[in-house]
Amino acid sequence: MYDHFFLGLQAISSLEVQFFILFGAVAGIAVSCLPGLSATMAVALLLPMTFGISPVSALLLLSGIYVGAMFGGAIPAILLATPGTPSAVSTTFDGYPMAKKGMAGKAISIACIASVVAGLFGTAVLMLVAPPLAEFALRFSAPEYFSVAVFGLAVISSLSEGSVFKAFISGMIGLLLAVVGQDPMTGFERFTFGSSDLLGGVSFLAVMIGTAALAEVLYQMDGGNKGQALEKFEVNDMGLTKAELRQMVKPTIIGCIFGVFIGIMPAAGANIAAFISWAQAKMWSKHPEEFGHGSIEGITASEAGNNSVVGGDLVPMLTLGVPGDPVTGIMMGALILQGLRPGPMLFAERPEIVWGLFLGLFISNLWVLPIGLFGARFFAKMTTVPKPILWPTILILCTVGTFASEGTMVPAYTVVVFGFLGYFMKKASIPTAPLILGVLLGPMTEENLRRSLLMSNSDWSIFVTRPISLALLAVGFLTLIWPWIQEWYQNRIARRLGVEVPKE
Fold first, then answer.
1. CA distances from 181 to 95, 121, 184 (A)
2. Number of domains in the chain
3. Average pLDDT value for the chain
């Protein structure tokens, strides 16, 4: 372990890596302050920047964006009652009322401190949990990896945004796209229509940028995201008293515990973690009547909950190759484009990358504190950037970034195709995240299914007679039905507290 620690330390010791860590944190905060953007879109847009840089730099750039965006979403939530990211919905419950009392600066300081503490806690848990889990996963063979892939695909039910049936339609489109190219076992061409550009399959980059970024811009340009103007507050005194800091201790602990636990479960998200943390903090508070009216404890619990999720989300992505949410799905795609495969072998073959990521996450979270506190007034001004300026900029980044990835126009054309596909899917209320998940996990599912059947002479019972494979399939089934259990639990808490459950 100590050898791996020093390998990771060496991997992040260069000025190049430190620059990308800092740039990622700043970019994440800035993008989440902009109207209509999200952590997923930010990571997708900057994914082309990872070409030509080391895998450690690439991962830390994207993870820095993720970390920064988790805090940055609180700024518009506090100033405009409009969450910059879905995970900041619960922050509006107390952030905006506190701003109306003339304490917008204090609210941002509270959110920043809670975010950093929770982010550090989540990273510490990641360091403790991921290596032993990866070591256990080294025992896996083809049947176990197929069951892991099924477990990952079961997450589609949690990305439904209303209709599980529509989520499965989206996931099936992704799985169909995954079979384009050469057969992984025989090398036979499939669905290439004689085009050599499709021999390597459909570009991960084009699919992710088209559906996660371009489609969202087209949807907003069509009027799908018009917001109502609210009173905006200036960032004033950001200092906190010792009494206010003491008030933050208990809700921070609550948010950290629930956030990490929910983050490790692929079927949940940061917005759910934030809401449950807020609700639990209210239950344990000595002054529950203050929640929803500018409570320090409410802001703290919400921000601690959504930021501790980051470390938890990376556990299944790094150890099993199963993305915990759309952001880690794109990060997984970045690793694949670098020629690496997330999973237990990554810990064994490239420990410097894994431990470099662990240590870099600590630095990313530490950077958020000075950037968030000293740059709050600047980021607050970014909440008013006009969309007619923002939209063309994103469109240019989408096309130029994909063109630069391969130096040909094919990826640029592909991103436009998937941009319009994603747009029509959004118009039909079909979520695009399952499509990305299907593209990512499709090859892993097919290859290990066929290898397993070769091992067993086409005996399908191999998946249920091996204990680990059976356990993973059972967990996959639980993951599949988890959204309904989760909805029941949330509604039960919401009825007790008299609040509305946030939606993705």
1. 50, 42, 9
2. 1
3. 82
CA atoms within 13 A on the CB side of 447: 15
Q: Report if residue 425 sits inside a domain.
A: no
CB 479 within 8 A of CB 155: yes
pTM: 0.75
How many angstroms from the chain centroid is the CA of residue 273? 13
Distant-in-sequence, close-in-space partners of 344: CB < 8 Å, separation ≥ 6: 134, 135, 136, 137, 138, 140, 319, 320
24-263-449-202 Cα dihedral, nearest 10 degrees: -30
284 within some domain: yes
Q: 2-11 and 351-374 are packed helices; what angle lies between their axes, rounded to 10 degrees?
A: 60
Question: What letter would DSSP give residue 50?
Answer: G
The CA-CA-CA angle for residues 304, 44, 165, to 5°, reads 80
Distances, alpha carbon 59 to alpha carbons 43, 253, 383, 437, in Å: 11, 28, 27, 19
Residues in the chain: 504
How many Cα atoms occupy the beta-carbon half-sphere of 124 within 13 Å? 8
In the predicted structure, residue 310 carries a pLDDT above the cut 70: yes
Q: What are residue 181's DSSP bridge partners?
A: 190
- Which residues share a beta bridge with 182? 189
In 3D, which of 435, 373, 335, 276 has the Cα closest to residue 62?
Answer: 335
| Tokens 């206010």 belong to residue | 244
Longest distance between any two alpha carbons in the chain, whole Å: 71
72 located within any domain:
yes
CA 200 to chain CA centroid, Å, is 26
Amino acid identity for residue 353 in this structure: I
Distinct helix (H) and strand (E) counts, the chain: 23, 2
**Burial of residue 176 (number of CB atoms within 10 Å: 0-12, 13-18, 19+):** middle
d(CA 323, CA 331): 8
Residue 407, domain extent? 2-148+205-413
Structure confidence by residue, pLDDT tens digits, 47-86: 877 877 888 898 899 999 989 988 988 888 888 777 767 6
- Tokens standing for 100? 């109306």
Residue 159 zone, left/alpha/beta (φ > 0; ψ -120 to 50; rest): alpha
Helices assigned H by DSSP within 265-322: 270-284, 296-320
Rounded Cα–Cα distance for residues 45 and 240 (Å) = 36
Backbone angles phi, psi at 182, to 5 degrees: -90, 140
Taking the C-alpha atoms of residue 214 and residue 51, their distance in angstroms, rounded to an integer, is 20
424 belongs to a structural domain = no
Coil, strand or helix: which one is 182? Answer: strand
Calpha distance 480→154 (Å, rounded): 5
285-297 confidence digits (pLDDT tens): 888 888 888 899 9
Query: Within 10 Å of residue 485's Cβ, how many Cβ atoms?
Result: 11
* C-alpha closest to that of 136 among 353, 378, 315, 401: 315
Place of tokens 């939209």: 391
